[in-house]
Amino acid sequence: MSDRHHHHQHHDHDDDRPRAHDAPLSDVELRVRALESLLVDKGLVDRAALDALVDTYETKVGPRNGARIVARAWIDPEFRRRLLENATEAIAELGYIGRQGEDMVALENTRDVHNMVVCTLCSCYPWPVLGLPPVWYKSAPYRSRAVIDPRGVLREFGVDVGADVEVRIWDSTAELRYLVLPERPPGTEGMSEEELAALVTRDAMIGVAKVPSPAPPSARGAKR
Amino acid sequence: MTARPDLDALPAIPRDDEGPVFRAPWQAQAFAMAVSLHERGAFTWKEWAKRLADEIATARERGEVDDGRRYYHDWLAALEKLVAEKQLLRADELTRRKDEWERAARETPHGKPIELRPTAS
């Protein structure tokens, strides 16, 4: 099995308070968890209803920044090179800067390698680039299964990775976050940067989807 | 799914044309809790807006810069107070539960999801 799990020391990831490095959740995160779990226990709110609300707004941080980065990398080989060499700087060139000073690494998906990002501890996620994490990203089954059975998880997302393709799982941390640079789909020759950016999905930048070729809307798969 | 919360009634919520904008996941969770509690009738939206405005005004008096960065800190503090005032939860329950989460987080090895085990209490 060629699948690799890239493991990194995890630290906290709150936006505005320095804390002990061994504390994985910040003070506000603990308060939110305390309040939420008590309200759910007492039946005062419904967990599914909360998740649905969060889901509604999950794309509302840094809405399409990541897609623009990917589109630029597809059409500008020099930018692509800089992105893969030093993603933090290349992304800053476009004016997107992580508020928390975290470093970004871009992972290039190719015919031979499929990269997929997970945070197994507490769902670190590059919000400024990708927006709020989807609810499933934070779910325990996704986090643990992505490491144990990445191909199975990918299949559930509708991505069949051939046996000859190496699957790499990247575990993000507070300091180091990943952006998957998906393969540019065929049939996009001559498209503008803006048109390309519109094709790039959040899931593709996490590595749980491929960017579909432009096709009539009816032919597109439903997005999870 | 549900009616959209009346964002216009709230003091200066960070938003765009389509709705609220969050800086971190916990902020969206805090937002969702207030909206959900209101939908369940725990308090009126007017009560909530007033409570939040008071919290922001207090923060301003403390000398907090009013640039939106602390909006959801104030939001969470207002919500904690309102649920206590409405006797939905007791303040000591919240403190205890927070400690439990902190312990769970510290005792969880990297690679395992942080989960709260039921405790005998």
Give a structural overview.
The complex is a heterodimer of chains A (224) and B (121). With 224 residues, chain A is of the alpha/beta class. Chain A folds into 2 domains: 28-57, no CATH class; 62-214, Nitrile Hydratase, Chain A (Alpha-Beta Complex). Chain A is 40% helix and 12% strand. Chain A has 11 helices and 5 strands; from the N terminus they run βαααααββααααββαα. Chain A has a 3-stranded parallel sheet with strand order 1-4-3, with helices on one face. In chain A, helix 3 (65-75) packs across helix 4 (77-85), helix 3 crosses helix 10 and helix 4 packs across helix 5. Mean pLDDT of chain A is 77; it is low at 7-22 and 217-224. The longest helix of chain B is centred in the middle third of the chain and has 17 residues, at 45-61. Chain B starts with 14 loop residues before the first strand and ends in a 14-residue tail after the last helix. In chain B, helix 1 (25-39) runs parallel beside helix 3 and helix 2 (45-61) packs across helix 3. In chain B, strand 1 (15-16) and strand 2 form a beta hairpin. Chain B has 4 helices and 2 strands, in the order ββαααα. Chain B has a two-stranded antiparallel ribbon with strand order 1-2. Chain B has a domain at 22-101. Classes of the chains: A alpha/beta (224), B mainly alpha (121). Chains A and B meet through helix 1, helix 2 and helix 8 of A and strand 2, helix 1, helix 3 and helix 4 of B.
